[in-house]
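Fold Annotation — chain and its backbone
Next Lines — sequence and tokenised fold

***
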Amino acid sequence: MHMVPECVGENNVQVSTMYGYEVGKIREYLAGWGRQGFHVQTVDSFQGKEDQIIVVHCSAARKTRQNPIGFLTDLRRLNVP
């Protein structure tokens, strides 16, 4: 699996996702491919940091009265990456 050019290296790659649950799932997936050097964090955790390659993971979510999409209610959250 060639996801990152050899000249960059996995330790210079940030995978940023909106939900904490997805962090664990992405780490599991990457570990299955023998890729454990990536920095996988939520968007909030990544704020103020930088890497050579940034991958932003987005997933579909449904807003309901019982399950509102909390991070979308704050417009500042959408420009963090």
